[in-house]
Design brief:
Length: 261
């Protein structure tokens, strides 16, 4: 065999291996350079949205009614909220505008499910339910308010958000049926709502239907027996008495405003 041809055959594998090594080295170098000089990636941090424990029911079917003839032209609202896990229910009746200096009344009937073991104390309950008003200077009064629902714990407070109000809050809890009645009656200015005015407003709170809770029906039936008709206990002479100070309005109005009808 010719010497030149023999040398070419011997050198071919070594040259091929060296070329392949060079190509591999260039490939690794190019990948490294691309990684070093690439623009930094933007890592998006997804913040989980807070889901409220309470869900507002669309087109609520009212279970309670609050008839205030003196506030026939005042805006009203009825809201039902359900607890997503525990199954508790809150019926909230609101009368008035919280952003104005005119009177503002809220009544909440809370029938808890398994979401709580026991009701909070009066001040804690009011601080939670009236959180949107940012209540300040909450203080309990020693003397309870006599009403058709029995003695109510009274919590005066002032609002620190929006139009300043002086509010008289109330709380009453029942063990059987398991129910909490709470709310507040506010007005602008430096004075609180009179205790008798609050009791008269709650005199107008009645039950439309109890559904599958006969004990709730019995509770409201007993409350009707205790009704004072805003200080005029004779239902024949004053079945729906006019109470001028209840809404700082004229005694005569058109058809009574009923929240929940």
């Amino acid at each position: 065999m010719h010497p030149a041809l023999h040398s070419w055959r011997d050198e071919l594998p070594a040259a091929f291996v060296r070329g392949l090594a060079v190509l591999c080295g260039l490939a690794v170098l190019s990948v490294f350079c691309a990684w070093v000089f690439q623009s930094p990636k933007t890592i998006r941090v997804i913040t989980p949205m807070h889901q409220s424990e309470w869900t507002e029911i669309e087109r609520p079917f009212p279970a309670f009614v609050l008839s205030i003839p003196e506030a026939a032209d005042v805006p009203s609202r009825y809201v039902i909220r359900r607890h997503a896990e525990g199954g508790g229910r809150k019926d909230i009746l609101a009368l008035g505008d919280p952003d104005s200096a005119s009177p503002y009344l809220v009544v909440e009937i809370y029938r808890p499910g398994s979401e709580i073991g026991r009701f909070a104390g009066p001040q804690a309950a009011i601080a939670a339910t009236a959180a949107a008003l940012e209540p300040v200077a909450l203080r309990s009064t020693e003397e309870p308010l006599v009403s058709k629902f029995g003695p109510l714990s009274i919590i005066p407070f002032e609002t620190s958000k929006g139009t300043p109000h002086h509010c008289l809050a109330f709380v009453r809890t029942y063990d059987d049926p398991r129910l909490q009645l709470s709310g507040w009656f506010c007005q602008g200015g430096a004075d609180f709502i009179e205790r008798s005015t609050l009791a008269c407003a709650l005199d107008r709170l009645t039950l439309l239907f109890a559904g599958s809770e006969p004990k709730v029906g019995a509770l409201f039936a007993q409350a009707e027996l205790n009704r004072s008709f805003c200080g005029q206990r004779d239902p024949i002479l004053a079945s729906t008495p006019k109470y001028k100070l209840l809404w700082k309005a004229l005694a005569t109005r058109p058809e009574p405003r009923r929240i929940g009808r």
